[in-house]
Amino acid sequence: MLAGAQHFRRISAWLPLLIGLATLALGAWLVFRPAPRNLLREGDALLAGGHYYGALLLYRAAARDSTSAPELLRVGMVETVRGEDRAAGRSLAQALNGGLSPVEHDLARLYQGQAAAQAGQQQQAIGFWRTIERGRPLYAPQQVLEGEALLRAADYAAAESAYQAALDAGLPQEWRRVALARVAALRASSDREGALAALAAIAAPQGQQPEPLVTPLLPIPAPAPGAIQQALDSPADQRTLLLGQVYLDAGLIELAAAQFSAAGGRVAQAYAAYAQLRAGDRAGGQARLEQLVAEQPEDARARALLALAYLGETDTRRARAQLETIRALAPTSPDTHLAWGQWYAAQSDYVAAAGEYRRALAEAPADQRGAYLLALARFHIDTSLTVCDQGRPAAEDAAIMLDTAPAWNAAAEAGLSCGDALAASAAANRARTLDP
Fold first, then answer.
1. Where do the DSSP E strands lie in 114-175?
2. Does an H or E element contain 386, and which?
3. Which residues fall within 8 angstroms of residue 429, CB to CB, at 6 or more apart?
4. pLDDT tens-digit profile of 274-319?
């Protein structure tokens, strides 16, 4: 009994110290535990820097500690950027129902519209965006995003009006460059001087301070300003056809078709047929290409486009037949080798494809080698075949020769694949400078 009493007294003596230590530990945990607002600030920095997954983890952690509207808003924003449109719609709707400040409300609507647009619901997207009224801080970016939706719907006049409204309202520098590039592209077909003026304005150091939380929605202009400038600077007798090709590459099919119709000639007819095919009338476009080939069997360009049409339908037998004829018509043409390279790549015969890409480069005129170097580099990068031995040197040479954003992007991708993060970062920065 005496021993038990002594043991109890010893425990009692230590008890205040143990309680004090426990209280201190709890206090430290309460003090140093990241508060939801701290998590939001850290997540916002990651989001603005393009680290979306890391931002999402922090936002979700903040939402677990405090399921208030700002946390749910941030979760929905990252889900939108990551293409999780359905989840984003739920998160953003919950945030809006939970109560947001006026600026946060507009931010939610901006991302809600983007999620709807990504899901193919263009009218719903425009409805969300138009709740952001003129004069509010996010009105101008909203107009750019609405212009993008109208552009995809081929409502070109309304799209240009939206971009101009955004410019008139005042945009952050990078958003301003996108809007001006879009205006230049839309004016180039009918107002050369107006398009050139818009391109010239891109270089002017104007624009408001960027809003970091809106930066992930910044569109990438296609066609790039450099491609539009090159087409507009070309001789008048070539300009219409070249502009049509620029539009076609950018997916502005109706504008491309209009240029090809205005250009006239067999080359333009072939491209017009291919544009018809790309616009969704595959049967009509393919039939027109087949007619052009039947009328003039030696037209290698029409045959090449027809081969691409057949490849799009996975009709490899007829595609190969066209390519065989092209090879007979122009055996040393670099475009012939390039077409065969694409055909072999479609068959997953990458060794044969690589050989054709190298032959295309070997046959290319000196003043066109940059384009074929880039094609060779992209083949190696996209297939992950001998990227460091063959793809990276081609990409770096193409970047130096062309000095365009796509070429420097290829050099950045190749450098990253080969473990040279420093060179990749430098190349990516150059690409960003050329085409923000």
1. none
2. none
3. none
4. 888 888 888 888 899 989 889 888 888 888 888 888 877 778 888 8
Residue in 194, 190, 134 with CA at minimum distance from that of residue 165: 134
pTM listed for this prediction: 0.71
Q: How confident is the model at residue 184 (pLDDT cuts 50, 70, 90)?
A: very high
Tokens of 4: 């038990």
Taking CA atoms, 180 is separated from 30, 228, 293, 395, in Å, by 51, 12, 40, 29
Report how far residue 75's alpha carbon sits from residue 169's, in angstroms, rounded to the nearest whole number: 29
Helix, strand, or coil (residue 172): strand
Whether the Cβ atoms of residue 159 and residue 186 lie closer than 8 Å to each other:
yes
Task: Please state, rounded to an integer, the average pLDDT across all residues of the chain.
Answer: 83
Q: Give the C-alpha separation, 416 to 420, whole Å.
A: 6
Pairwise CA distance, residues 154 & 251, whole Å: 10
Question: Is residue 222 packed enough to be buried (19+ CB in 10 Å), middle (13-18) or exposed (0-12)?
Answer: middle
Note the residue count of the chain.
Answer: 436
Sign of CA dihedral 51, 69, 132, 211: negative
Among candidate residues 32, 50, 100, 110, the one with its CA nearest the CA of residue 71 = 100
Q: What mean pLDDT is predicted for residues 9-33?
A: 42
Amino acid (1-letter code) at residue 281: D
